[in-house]
UniProtKB/TrEMBL annotation:
It comes from Streptomyces litchfieldiae. It is found in: Cell membrane. It is a multi-pass membrane protein. Belongs to the CobD/CbiB family. This is Cobalamin biosynthesis protein CobD. Pathway: Cofactor biosynthesis; adenosylcobalamin biosynthesis. The gene is cobD.
Length: 320
């Protein structure tokens, strides 16, 4: 039995599941993938790009192949349930909002030490030397970037390739977080994972930036900042997203930060904006939620339209 628009319905159900329950504290499938990927890294690691490329291919390709096998076994009747379960597992909008608000609550209560303790759950930068405004800026930047990585990008690939697209995108994004940073150990080994993540994240990042402009309080400011500053960020995907969020919220992002003891001086995004304040964390979370909901509508509509077009084409060819 064919279920019309099974992928679109499944993604909507998975999004609703994430909205209502968020990520489980234990037993999350993505955490299981991370443990398996770490075990494989210990076996394959060499300070060479070729070794990293093999590692990336095995992890990402193996995930896509397994997801495709499960989708085939589920069949058309089981497609909505499998898509819903996969979408719930890979989407992280509720967890993102929860962690951002936790840091914001600590800052609002004047407990900067607690905010520094919570920040690593949200992003990888060193919190020790960050003051209140720097912590708030880090949260807003992380909310912006992860709206693309944890929500919109997954929906885009789900619309394009169903269950394998959802699972493979999350695998690629997780690999980038694990080995894609430029530490001495991963500068060469993680190169392939980082480049693949750039490629996979490209469409979702542009859709995120566009939706941030559409859903934000200052659409013109978002578009202006995206156009002027998006390309100046070292990440081809984080740049447009963070710039659009900065312009939409009227704040200034970017500047000096530290990752793993390595100091980076990033360009300022939306230089005409004001410094980030604690209250902007909730504004960023609200914008992220609106962007995620709009992305769901866009991606489900695109998938349903594609399925309808394909079905009409097959029917027409059959009649001939």
């Amino acid at each position: 039995m064919r279920v019309p628009h099974a992928t679109a319905y499944g993604m909507a159900l998975g999004y609703l599941g994430d909205l209502l329950t968020g990520d489980p504290r234990r037993g999350h499938p993505v955490a299981g993938f991370g443990r398996a990927a770490s075990a494989l890294e210990r076996r394959l690691w060499r300070d060479h790009r070729a070794a990293g490329a093999l590692y990336t291919a095995l992890c990402a390709g193996g995930t896509a192949a397994l997801a495709a096998l499960l989708a085939r076994r589920a069949g058309r009747a089981g497609a909505p349930a499998l898509t819903a379960a996969t979408a719930w597992a890979v989407l992280g909008g509720t967890g993102l909002a929860r962690e951002a608000r936790a840091v914001g609550a600590a800052l609002a209560a004047g407990d900067t030490d607690r905010a520094r303790e919570l920040l690593p759950r949200l992003c990888g930068r060193d919190p020790a030397a960050l003051d209140e405004r720097a912590l708030a800026r880090a949260v807003v930047e992380s909310v912006a970037e992860n709206t693309s990585d944890a929500v919109v990008g997954a929906l885009v690939w789900g619309a394009a390739a169903g269950v394998p697209g959802l699972a493979a995108f999350r695998a690629v994004n997780t690999l980038d977080a694990m080995v894609g940073h430029r530490s001495p150990r991963h500068r060469n080994f993680g190169w392939a994972s980082a480049r693949l993540d750039d490629l996979a994240g490209w469409p979702g990042a542009r859709l995120t930036a566009a939706l941030a402009a559409a859903a934000g309080p200052d659409p013109r400011g978002a578009l202006r900042a995206w156009r002027a500053d998006g390309h100046r960020h070292p990440s081809p995907n984080a740049g447009p997203v963070e710039a659009a969020f900065a312009g939409a919220l009227g704040v200034r992002l970017g500047g000096t930060l530290s990752y793993g003891g390595r100091v980076e001086h990033r360009p300022v995004l939306n230089a005409g904006g004001r410094p980030v304040e604690v209250a902007d964390i909730e504004r960023a979370v609200a914008l992220s939620r609106r962007v995620g909901a709009l992305a769901l509508v866009v991606c489900c509509a695109a998938r349903a339209a594609g399925e309808r077009l394909t079905g009409e084409r097959v029917t027409g060819e059959g009649r001939r």
